[in-house]
Structures are given as structure tokens and as C-alpha cells.
Design goal:
The complex is a heterodimer of chains A (about 325) and B (about 260). Chain A is mainly alpha-helical and about 325 residues long. Chain A contains 13 helices and no strands. Chain A has helices at about 1-30, 45-55, 60-70, 85-120, 125-140, 145-155, 175-210, 210-220, 225-235, 240-260, 265-275, 280-310, 310-315. In chain A, helix 8 runs antiparallel to helix 9 (about 225-235) and helix 10 runs antiparallel to helix 12. Chain A is globular, with a radius of gyration of 24 Å. Chain B is mainly alpha-helical and about 260 residues long. In chain B, helix 1 (about 5-30) packs across helix 2 and helix 2 (about 60-95) packs antiparallel against helix 3 (about 95-110). The chains are: A mainly alpha (about 325), B mainly alpha (about 260).
Chain lengths: ~325, ~260
């Protein structure tokens, strides 16, 4: 077990190194340089001074090593746009994104598992068909457009929910206000994942229902509720763990779009702004944070899976 | 044999969308780029069946030419993703061992990347030109295909027909192209139709954020950017391009699903 965890952690670190190196090289190879150098009013001397201050005059391998050296000290450089340390600028936004992504994930699980179990136990019924069509349509829905439609309906036409932001000025402490601002973005972020998860749960429950041990248990006259809980769900929900892992990067990526549409002050919107403003340190810091999060989640799920499934444990 | 309804309906919808994009402008005969500042955000009328946008351009005409860009970008980007995915997955599955391990770690890494930021950063840095946009979308969506192809190739590697081909002296590349690729076609067809839907969604998201197809060229995504200012006064501007994207993704995903279920 320990050997397995160590091995996976090392693999995760290799993946992380590939991600950061690729991002680093791609960004530096680009013509034009960072956004603050794009100002045509800068004289060549000023330009050189800025480049020198940011260390951009150094050869690429030197910059690359310097970035890693600083990384080990927890220093990711200063944001070009905000003049603040990149690491703390990004970390400040993390709670908002976690709140959004976390609520979306919880909502997905709360919706997808019961509905999926329901549909999987009644495959071919009209409820099952209806859910299948609904999840198909949801998966085809472009999330950013869906967000816009919700804004049109709930904010522009019916005036029941705010169109964006995290709080109403003057109402910062109000929980009800916070919740009102969360409803639309969480819905937009949660729906695609819910539809995908529902499909997995459905087919996995359907598969488990036909398994010989379930048929035997039913033949023995086991009560239906007991049967579902002890014999079907246990097997059926295991693969769901993997799907949740696969959704981690999607939730973060989706958060970037959702946060932009709803002007949500999270890491995603910061990432979009940093990318548009060519703020190298912030782009690198976000890539690193997201990659660590995604790899970390997958690692954790791998370990959980390993521990929960005796068949894998034996290997 | 008549194709079943599940294949027929999405295929016809796709055909309609392609005709709409390529034949529409010919039939309608309205220039999508003509500005008319005296008539901005006008409601539907006889001359402008869907009204005009924020610069007084005909919305229907822009939906048509925008469709050309969106559909073309979607299809070419999917072709890129299919090529990359088949190459990486095929090599990993065929070679096994170290090649496999390295390529699959690379695939894992690609999956851990926050695709949208990196695409955004890349397109801002290198400038958003159509070939780059297509390349970026293709380069960020091959991973699923690579995993599928790897699994299938690895399963077929020891099959008897491969052994036979080997015994006849065919080299690895030849076996892959002649003997394995045909077996991969069903998987690739499904991946392609679902991939087009994904690519079009990505294109429109990037264009919506201002980094995909650049104005004055229309695309369904960048039409939404302009419409965002008018969500309160003229929501129809935001509705139409989205409906077009939705119809396309429904058709592509529907076709993919139908083909997948026919295989089983």
C-alpha cells in the first residue's frame, strides 16, 4: 500500500513537471512578450529596464531554472498587472472557486446518484427515457450560452436573481444575498457534470442489478431495499469514483467560463484576465495550482479506489 | 437497408446546418458585413428576417457565414485531434513497454492542464489566427481518443491476423495502416462526431471570450460577445447564435450516440 502511494506520488510529480515545463516554454516562446511591454509609448531604454527588472533579459534556460529555484522557496514571482505576489494573488481567489466548484460537485452528486439509481433500476421505463433525453440535451448545451440564457431569464426578464458578482454592495454580510448570487453559477457549472455522472450511475446500477449474486439474493427473498443498499449500490458506485476524478479538470475549466459570465471573483476569471493581459507569473501560478489540484484529486481517488476495491488491492 | 431514425434525424439536421451555412448566403443574397448605423439592434422585419445586430448588420446573414467558420473550424480541429490521438494511442498500444509508459504519462499530463487558460494564453501570445485556433483546439482534445485507440490496439496486438501479417513480413507501420486502422474506424467515427460537437463548443467559448475567430469575421461564438451588452434590451441577439450552436451539438452528439448504440 505504502509502496503504491509513493509510486503514484512520484508519477504525479513527473506529470506536474511536464505540465509546468510545457506551459513555461510555450509562454516564453511567444512573440510580443508580456502585456506591460505592449505599450507603444515605452522608449527602448524603459523597455530594457522593465525586462531587466523582470529578469526577461536572461536566456530562457536561466529563467527556467530561476523559476524552479523560486518555486522551491514558495515564490512564484510578482504579478505584472497587479504588482502583488503571484502566489498570494492566486491563492486569495481559490476559496471563491472552491466554493463554486465544491457546491457544483455536491449538487451533481446529490442529483445524479438518486436519479441514476432510479433510472438504472427501471431501464426502458418512460422515466428512464426522459432522463436519458434530458442528460443528452444538457451535455449538448454550450455552458456559457446556457449561463447567458439564465441571466436573460432570471435577471433581465423576471428580476429574481442577480446577473453576476458575489455580493450586492452594502449587503456583504448577508448569507441570503450570498446564496442568491450562487444559484445561477452553481447551476451552470453543475449541470454538465450531473448529466455525465447520471449516465454512469445508471449503466453501472443496471449492470449490477443483473449480476448473479443479486439474482441469487433476490431469489432468496431478500427485501428490495436491503438488496439495493447492500448488494447493488456497493458495486455500482465504485466506478463513479473514477468519473468524479475525471470531472475535476472540467469543473475548474468550466469555472473559468462560468466565473467570466457571472463576474465571479474566482481563480478562473483571474486566469482569463491574466491570459488576456499576458501576466506570465499569474498564468504560471494558476497552471501550477490547477495542475496540483487535478493531480492531487486523482491521486486521492486512486488511493481510495485501491483501498475500497479488494480486487485491485490484490494485484 | 434504410438507416434507422436515430441515425437519419441527426444526419438530416447536420445536412440542413451545412446547407444553411454554405447555401444560405447565396439564397438570401445579403452581405453579412454591411454596416448600417442608422438601424442598429433593429427587430425582425421583411428586409432583416431576424433583425440587425449592434452595428446594424443582418443577423440571419451573419448566422449563415458564422456557421461556415464555426462548422469548418469544428471539423478541421476534430481531424487534427483524431490524427494526434490515433498516432499517440496507436504508438503506445502497438509498442507497449517504455514507449507506452512515456506516451501515457504525457496524455495524463495533457489531461491535467487547465485547457481553457492555456488555450487563452497561447492565443493571446501568438495572436488569434484561424490555423492557430484550429491547432489549439485539436491539440487540447486528442487525449480521450488516444486512450481509446491505445486500448483497442493493445488488445489487437497479439491477434492472429496481426501475427499472420507479421509472418508475411509486413512492418509495424504497414500493419497499423492496413490491418489495425480499419478495425479502429467504428471507434473513430463515434469519436469524430462527438469531437465536432466538442470542438464547436470550444471554438465558440474562445470566440466568446474574444480570442477565437476575430471580428469582423462572424462566428457563432463571437456574435454572442457583441450580444452580451444587450441582454436586457435585445436578448434575441444572444439567443440565435446559441440556438445554432445547440442544434449543431445536438446533431453531432445524436449521430455519435446512434452510431455507438448500433455497434453494441
Amino acid at each position: 500500500m505504502i509502496r503504491f502511494v509513493v509510486q503514484r506520488v512520484l508519477q504525479g510529480l513527473v506529470v506536474l513537471w511536464i505540465v509546468t515545463t510545457t506551459t513555461f516554454v510555450l509562454i516564453r516562446l511567444a512573440p510580443g512578450g508580456p502585456g506591460i511591454l505592449a505599450d507603444p509609448k515605452l522608449s527602448p531604454t524603459e523597455r530594457r529596464a522593465i525586462e531587466e527588472r523582470l529578469g526577461l533579459d536572461q536566456p530562457l534556460p536561466v529563467q527556467y531554472l530561476a523559476w524552479h529555484r523560486n518555486l522551491l522557496r514558495g515564490d512564484l514571482g510578482r504579478s505584472y498587472l497587479y504588482q502583488t505576489p503571484a502566489a498570494s494573488t492566486v491563492l486569495q481567489r481559490v476559496p471563491n472557486t472552491l466554493l463554486l466548484a465544491g457546491l457544483a460537485l455536491v449538487l451533481s452528486l446529490l442529483l445524479a446518484i438518486p436519479l441514476g439509481v432510479y433510472a438504472g433500476r427501471r431501464t426502458g421505463s418512460s422515466a428512464d427515457r426522459g432522463l436519458e433525453i434530458a442528460s443528452f440535451v444538457v451535455l449538448s448545451l454550450p455552458p456559457f450560452w446556457f449561463g447567458i440564457v439564465l441571466i436573460i431569464l432570471f435577471a433581465a426578464l423576471w428580476h429574481i436573481l442577480p446577473a453576476g458578482g458575489a455580493t450586492t454592495p452594502g449587503l456583504e454580510g448577508s448569507l441570503a444575498d450570498r446564496i442568491r448570487h450562487l444559484v445561477l453559477p452553481v447551476t451552470v457549472l453543475a449541470l454538465p457534470g450531473t448529466a455525465e455522472l447520471l449516465r454512469y450511475v445508471r449503466s453501472s446500477v443496471w449492470g449490477a442489478t443483473g449480476a448473479p449474486h443479486v439474482v441469487t439474493a433476490r431469489a432468496k427473498g431478500l427485501r428490495e431495499r436491503h438488496l439495493v443498499r447492500r448488494h447493488i449500490l456497493r458495486n455500482a458506485l465504485l466506478p463513479v469514483v473514477t468519473v468524479v476524478g475525471l470531472q475535476a479538470p472540467m469543473l475548474v475549466g468550466g469555472a473559468a467560463i462560468t466565473e467570466t459570465i457571472f463576474s465571479w471573483p474566482g481563480m478562473g476569471r483571474l486566469g482569463v484576465e491574466a491570459a488576456l493581459g499576458r501576466d506570465y507569473p499569474v498564468v504560471m501560478a494558476i497552471t501550477l495550482t490547477v495542475a496540483v489540484a487535478v493531480i492531487g484529486v486523482n491521486l486521492l481517488l486512486d488511493v481510495v479506489y485501491h483501498w475500497a476495491d479488494p480486487r485491485i488491492r490484490l494485484e | 437497408m434504410r438507416p434507422p431514425l436515430r441515425v437519419l434525424v441527426p444526419s438530416l439536421l447536420l445536412l440542413f446546418l451545412l446547407l444553411f451555412a454554405w447555401m444560405g448566403p447565396v439564397v438570401q443574397g445579403v452581405d453579412p458585413d454591411t454596416l448600417n448605423l442608422a438601424q442598429t439592434v433593429a427587430p425582425a422585419s421583411a428586409t432583416h428576417p431576424l433583425g440587425t445586430d449592434e452595428s446594424g448588420r443582418d443577423v440571419l446573414a451573419r448566422l449563415e457565414v458564422g456557421g461556415r467558420v464555426s462548422l469548418a473550424v469544428g471539423m478541421v480541429a476534430t481531424a487534427v485531434a483524431l490524427g494526434l490521438g490515433t498516432m499517440v494511442g496507436g504508438l503506445a498500444g502497438w509498442r507497449g513497454g517504455w514507449t507506452d509508459r512515456v506516451l501515457m504519462r504525457l496524455t495524463d499530463a495533457a489531461m491535467a492542464v487547465p485547457v481553457l487558460f492555456v488555450s487563452l494564453a497561447f492565443l493571446t501570445l501568438f495572436g488569434s489566427r484561424l490555423p492557430l485556433l484550429i491547432g489549439v483546439i485539436g491539440a487540447t482534445s486528442w487525449m480521450g481518443i488516444a486512450r481509446l485507440v491505445r486500448a483497442e490496439v493493445a488488445a489487437m496486438r497479439e491477434a492472429e491476423f496481426v501475427l499472420a501479417a507479421r509472418a508475411l513480413g509486413r512492418d509495424g507501420g504497414g500493419i497499423f495502416l492496413r490491418h489495425l486502422l480499419p478495425h479502429l474506424m467504428p471507434t473513430l467515427t463515434v469519436a469524430a462526431s462527438v469531437g465536432v460537437a466538442w470542438a464547436i463548443m470550444t471554438e465558440s467559448a474562445l470566440s466568446f471570450l474574444g480570442l477565437g475567430v476575430q471580428p469582423p469575421s462572424a462566428s457563432w461564438g463571437n456574435m454572442l460577445t457583441g450580444a452580451q451588452t444587450y441582454l436586457y434590451s435585445a436578448p434575441r441577439l444572444a439567443v440565435w447564435p446559441g440556438v445554432m450552436i445547440l442544434l449543431t451539438t445536438l446533431a453531432c452528439n445524436g449521430l455519435g450516440e446512434a452510431l455507438r448504440s448500433r455497434r453494441q
